[in-house]
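Hey, quick one: can you model this chain's 3D structure?
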Amino acid sequence: MKSIQSKDLNLNNKKILIRLDLNVPLNGTAIIDTSRIDKVIPTLQYLLKSKAKIIILSHIGRPKGKFVNELSLKPVCDELEKKLNQKISLINHSIKKIKIESFFCEKKNIAMLENLRFFKEEENDDMIFAKNLANLGDIYVNEAFSCSHRKHASVHSITKFLPSYSGLQLESEVNSLSKITSNIKRPITCIIGGSKISTKITVIKNLIDKFDNIVFVGGMANNILKFKKYEIGNSVYEKNAEVIVSEIFNISEKKNCKIFFPLDVSTGKNVDEKPTTKKLPEISNDDMILDIGPETIKMIKNIINNSNTILWNGPAGYFENPEFSKGSKEIAEQIVKRKKENKIYCVSGGGDTVAVLNYFGLVKDFDFVSTAGGAFLEFLEGKELPGIKALNS
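Sure thing. Here's the predicted structure for all 393 residues.
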């Protein structure tokens, strides 16, 4: 995989087609979270400094091949203009009719194509559509790791028509996740949450073979507790997951990977209540488990202190209510403490986990934080992502 920082790559006056993931959450035209925009600013600044002309390719939402005004990239374009202090042309013409040079001048070096998913050919990985896109530029750059698990025209087929490179963030993401899956510094621990165990079962089974410890927290842990015949009351859990949980324990025993789950929990009758700490046998049938308890926090901190590498995916509780955010906060702070002592390599990923770290202002303290969801998990599963494979071929 070649990077745009390759010494033999001359970017001066070249038209760079760069695929970004600017799929930000919107409330009307207001951007709720700018994390995905902020993340690509260094790459765009690098290209501008190299005197390249930039053509941004991206999408937002799921318009299913139709023009949907509410899913225009206009708010994103406006936000990028502010952050880069650059005028950006938003192009909503038919791809074949675009005369790209007309959108550039001495003081305008960035153009953005309107939402690619307005065209059904994008998600169909249409070869002609990909070629028409490629005709707009001289060089293609993939800076959208979070879209690279999808075989879409602007991620996959476009690489057949142009010299193709990875962006700064994509390269960093692949390298960081490779340290978790391949270049492992043991002991290595995975802290995993989320409510659905079935969506992450392949990831978990793949990690058991590589990790020393897997710690289940959040809704994921409720499935473990139910399997162990503890009362979980009205807590979030996934039905019919017993076979999956049994399989996890069987494989972990064979692979010598230790499985940990809560010793005590923080409960309420609903998500807005004050917390009550309970040991597992004390949980009643009208309780909701909304966070891990102090004994569990102590256990997890001890595991973190005895690890050299940490992967964290999924909050420990209902952190949206500060009363149930203590578990997530203390896990994050302990990882950061070890990181600052240069005793741990830490990677976090998935939307909810990024939200937790943003909530506590700790995003910049991790070695790497992935905003990717599906691509992040598929990479951890050991799958070859189409967008990454295309850059290597």
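One thing worth noting: The chain has a mean pLDDT of 91.
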